[in-house]
Structure formats: C-alpha cells, structure tokens
Write a structure and sequence with these properties.
alpha/beta; 23% helix; 8 strands; Rossmann fold; 163 residues; two-stranded antiparallel sheet
Length: 163
C-alpha cells in the first residue's frame, strides 16, 4: 500500500483537501482508504444502541455489521493508543492510504495552510512535508500549490509515490 498524508493546523483545510483527493483518486480508478487522527475523545456509537450497551457492559471489542458497512469498535480502556504502524496494519490492502493528521510521523505529507487560521507553517521545520497547499502564494524550498488545485495536488502525490 502507498501512504501519503495531509497535515496542518486546525482550520487550515485538511479535511476538505482530503475529501477532494479521495474523490479524485477514486475517479482515477484507485482504491483508497483513510486514516484520521483525532486529538480528542471520539465516539461513533450512541447511548441507547445495542452496540453501545455492549461496550458499556465491558466488551473489549464490538463488531457492528449490516448489509452496507461493518464498524469495529475497540475499547482501549487503560491500554495505550495503537501506533501509526499498528493502525495501518489493520487496514485491508488498497492502492492508496491517505492519512489526515499524524504530524509527527515520517510518512510523506502535504501541509494544508490557510492564512486565516493564524498559525505558522510547519513545513520549514519538517522534511517529511514534501509540498504545501496554500490559499496564498508562498516562497519555500519545496512546491507550493493552490489549496483548491485538487488535480494538480493528486498528480504530485501520484508522482511522488509512483502510483
């Protein structure tokens, strides 16, 4: 599996860029999965559902299956969060895994940057960031793309990882 990331600070356009890239790579006939890191506690289940009741009762893992999707919920309880590598290993093989977040990992990435977010660029201090997708022109030692230039960014990623 080929792996490429989109990183950046909150409200810099990561999720929108991810969504457009997923659509673009799928349009090109590739199979795509994603790995997203959340810094806050998150839950895809809701109180009152049978699966939530199973988890609340103490189940370490609950698989919820339907004709349209399967969700596997694993309770960490007092165990550490799985590593980036462990999470990738859980995915079924696909052509491309797009990763949102995971700033500190060494996989190749594009930084999403919006001036309105008021944050500094990560790229100057991080060599794993191969390019920046920005809402303003920037002068850097690596490629800078318009944040909305989805096809151009997808071409860059495909060339970088020989897709």
């Amino acid at each position: 599996m080929k792996i490429y990331g989109i990183t950046g600070w909150k409200n810099c356009g990561k999720t929108g860029l991810m969504e457009r890239l997923i659509s673009e790579f799928c349009r090109r006939g590739l199979s795509v999965s994603t790995l997203k890191h959340a810094h806050h506690s998150t839950d895809v289940d809701h109180p009152g559902t049978d699966s939530h009741r199973h988890r609340e009762a103490g189940a370490a893992e609950v698989i919820l299956a339907s004709p349209s999707r399967v969700a596997i919920m694993q309770e960490l309880r007092d165990t550490p969060e799985p590593s980036f590598t462990e999470l990738l290993a859980r995915l079924r093989p696909v052509d491309l895994v797009l990763v949102e977040g995971f700033k500190r990992e060494s996989h190749p990435k594009i930084e999403a940057y919006r001036t309105a977010a008021g944050q500094s660029l990560i790229a100057p201090q991080d060599t794993s960031i191969r390019a920046v997708a920005s809402d303003i022109p920037l002068h850097l030692d690596r490629p800078v793309f318009d944040l909305d230039a989805t096809e151009v960014i997808a071409d860059f990623i495909a060339q970088e990882i020989t897709l």
